[in-house]
């Protein structure tokens, strides 16, 4: 039995280094729009994935972003 397409998507992790880190999801399609926002406090970790609705994310604040492509520190 094949797995749903969501299981084939890339996952990434955002770990907040300070209170009030915002992770904003942006839509796919002809008009890119904000469609979801999460607020993380220091030490909180959240796992995200790109989906048929989410084509990009924006991280505002001090955070570490882990993905299959490596680690990004937003303070550097």
Sheet with the most strands?
4 strands, antiparallel
Helix content: under 10%
Q: In terms of per-residue confidence, which ranges show pLDDT below 50 for 5 or more consecutive residues?
A: none
The Cα radius of gyration reads 13 Å
Topology at a glance:
Blueprint: E1 11-16, E2 21-27, E3 34-40, E4 45-49, E5 54-60, E6 63-67, E7 70-73
Antiparallel strand pairs: 1-4, 1-6, 2-3, 2-5, 6-7
Characterise the protein shown here.
The chain is an all-beta fold. It has one domain (18-73): TRAP-like (Immunoglobulin-like), CATH 2.60.40.50. Helix content is 0%, strand content 54%. It has no helices and seven strands. The protein has a four-stranded antiparallel sheet with strand order 4-1-6-7, with no helix packed on it. A three-stranded antiparallel sheet has the order 3-2-5, with no helix packed on it. Strand 6 (63-67) and strand 7 form a beta hairpin. It starts with 10 loop residues before the first strand and ends with a strand.
In a nutshell, what does this entry contain?
With 76 residues, this protein is an all-beta fold.
Structural key phrases:
3-stranded antiparallel beta sheet; 4-stranded antiparallel beta sheet; 54% strand; 76 residues; Immunoglobulin-like; single chain; mainly beta
